Amino acid sequence: FADGSEISEIETYLEETSPDNPDEKTDLYGIAEDKNVIFVSIESFQSFLFDTKINGTETTPFLNDLRHSDDTITFENFYHQTAQGKTSDSEFIVENSLYPLGRGAVYFTHAGNEYNALPEILNEEGYETSVFHANNGSFWNRDVMYDNIGYDEFYDEKSYQITPENSFGWGLEDKAFFEQSIKYLQSQEQPFYSKFITLTHHFPFELPEEKANIDQYDSNSNTLNAFFQTARYTDESLELFFQQLKNAGLYEDSIIVLMGDHYGISDFHNKAMGQFLGKEVTPYEQVQLQRVPFMVHIPGYDDGEIKEKVVGQIDVKPTLLHLLGIEENGDMTFGGNMFAEDRKDFIALRDGSFISENYVYTNELCYDRSTGEQLTDEAAKGCLPIKEKVDQDLHYSDNIIYGDLFRFYDFNENEE
Ligand code: GP9
Ligand code: MN
């Protein structure tokens, strides 16, 4: 059964567990006000790829430079929090600052719920909102969910010229995808919020030989071996996209947010991964491998840095609203602004693992985050109170989704 009482209980819980100063305004508050937001969800891109080389060739030269540039803020301890719904889970987390479900994909199972999603909020603020993704529009039930959460346009595969020359693997290659998207982007009212979802760097990481500009890795895993070639391809396609945005006159008035959706290399490949990393992939390392890129590129900004705070996909919605200078006082979110000093003290992964300032917890084991050493007895007890909060968070988020509890909550009434 579901009624309005549990939502008040959750509202109280979120208020009590949120930082002392949830509305803390940083120097970055409103820095992107009235600018376009170009959000790029980068398929299967894991942060361990940064600054790697294969036979002397950099895997991601463009992104490496971008990470260290003055106009980019990078969070290097940013975790994906997805489960079975993969890309769609990452989209759901970003749009709602709720956790995905432990089983199934929310995009399929609860596409009809009430939400207070990012595109709806931005619509009300006068943004045109859209998604670009050159796959079948019903994949992950996107067409239905997007409609529900307020995207104005969905440019799916029907919007693209897909030929044998420009497609392989999952479909249209990313370089052609970005190139063909520019005209649609230009046709939009400004300011816009547009999400791009890439596809080429997707399992099984297939790439025609003549399109590869880096060697394969050499291990017992064909998957890991191929992974670097499509990662390099992604890097090249992003570099071209930035150039195309400049040529189209869209770059200066936009911020570009780059995010990895989830891992591409599963634990099935741990032996090869251990060989590549030069260390055994312990459960602790397995958690650390769930880091994906999160970079905010602000043309004209000159205070760029690499931030070390522990953050995750759950924090993206409040963070974007902060950058855009939009106050959502009545919102119910499980994440918070990444730039705030005062933050919740953990990032929960969907399987109940978590990362905090001092600990990494997974499979009922507590590790020292800075050394990776497994803690025992008294030392391991530090994980327990955080684990309780993690489970409570996941439980309440699940209840909101399963009970469609936002039906009983008036987001506007709680606006101040
Ligand atoms: C499909 C693409 C990939 O359209 O987003 O989905 P994934 O398998 O990564 O969830
Ligand atoms: Mn994906």
Automatic annotation (TrEMBL):
Family statement drawn from the similarity comment of this UniProt entry: Belongs to the LTA synthase family.
Membrane topology: Multi-pass membrane protein
GO function terms (MF aspect): metal ion binding; transferase activity
Catalytic residues (UniProt): T87
Record-annotated Sulfatase N-terminal domain positions: 35-326
Residues binding Mn(2+): E43, T87, D261, H262
Subcellular location: Cell membrane
Protein known as: Phosphoglycerol transferase MdoB
One cellular component term from this protein's GO annotations in UniProt: plasma membrane
Range covered out of full length: 211 to 626 of 626
Keywords: Cell membrane, Manganese, Membrane, Metal-binding, Transferase, Transmembrane, Transmembrane helix
Sites where the protein binds substrate: H202
UniProt entry tagged with the keyword Chaperone: no
